[in-house]
Design brief:
Blueprint: H1 18-31, E1 35-43, H2 45-58, H3 66-80, E2 86-89, E3 92-95, E4 101-103, E5 105-107, E6 110-112, E7 115-116, H4 124-140, E8 153-157, E9 176-190, E10 193-207, H5 213-229
Parallel strand pairs: 4-8, 8-9
Antiparallel strand pairs: 1-10, 2-3, 4-7, 5-6, 9-10
């Protein structure tokens, strides 16, 4: 038997322990759910206009990103579709009164999902501020355990990357997760004319044990409409 090469580079191993281990266990559980994915694109013209106006009014005191508008629209749409704002435990679906959005945040060792509670009761400016604070705490390692608890639906935004489409994994015991991709200019038809509009991709993944395809499709369609018109935002 040949002797091992003493000059071989040491193996680089990343054990699935700690945060990485918790992510592995949670994602395995989420992957086992009978999930379905649906995709839609939203015209972000109006949201971008409102975001720019709000940013101008706030000046440099606070940064407003489009994520805050997505969260506001998502929370209001979940209010209209309570079957998706629910948890599945021990073959029982519990409809949740509070709409608590978990926001996936990339950190050096993996992924955390701090929770913005009662998101439907907060303004875009309030959501932007809380999102910034929670994201900073997540990356700085200062999140309190309670800030990671009681989420009822998850949002994961890869809009800052070059990704056009992806299917996120459900964060159990939640029933749904929304994945956001980058916004790019595309030709679309408006009033019978071809124009260029900023289009954002959205992928809804849901647990088919608790939610059927049609109500999930209506939910995603309503979310698209709310982001397109920005009504109530």
């Amino acid at each position: 038997m040949a002797e091992a090469d003493s000059n071989a580079a040491p193996r680089k191993l990343v054990p699935l322990t700690g945060l990485r281990g918790a992510i592995a266990r949670n994602m395995t559980q989420g992957w086992q759910a009978p999930r379905v994915s649906m995709y839609a694109e939203a015209d972000m013209t109006e949201c971008e206009r409102l975001r720019a106006n709000l940013q101008a009014s706030l000046g440099g005191t606070q940064k407003v990103t489009v994520t805050a508008y997505i969260m506001r629209a998502l929370a209001l749409t979940l209010r209209d579709h309570p079957r998706l704002n629910a948890l599945l435990k021990d073959n029982v679906v519990e409809l949740m009164d509070d709409i608590n959005l978990a926001l996936a945040v990339s950190v050096p060792d993996g992924l955390l999902a701090p929770v913005i509670r009662n998101a439907d009761r907060k303004t875009v400016a309030e959501l932007a501020q809380e999102t910034a604070e929670l994201s900073a705490a997540a990356r700085g390692g200062t999140l309190a355990p309670r800030q990671l608890q009681r989420g009822t639906f998850t949002l994961t935004n890869l809009g800052m990357t070059r990704i056009d489409w992806f299917t996120p994994i459900i964060n159990p015991p939640q029933l749904g997760i929304l994945g956001i991709t980058r916004t790019i200019d595309k030709p679309v038809v408006k009033d019978g004319k071809i124009v260029i509009a900023p289009m954002m991709g959205m992928t809804l993944v849901f647990d088919h044990r608790a939610v059927d395809g049609y109500p999930a499709a209506v939910f995603l369609g309503d979310l698209k409409q709310r982001l397109t018109t920005c009504e109530g935002l």
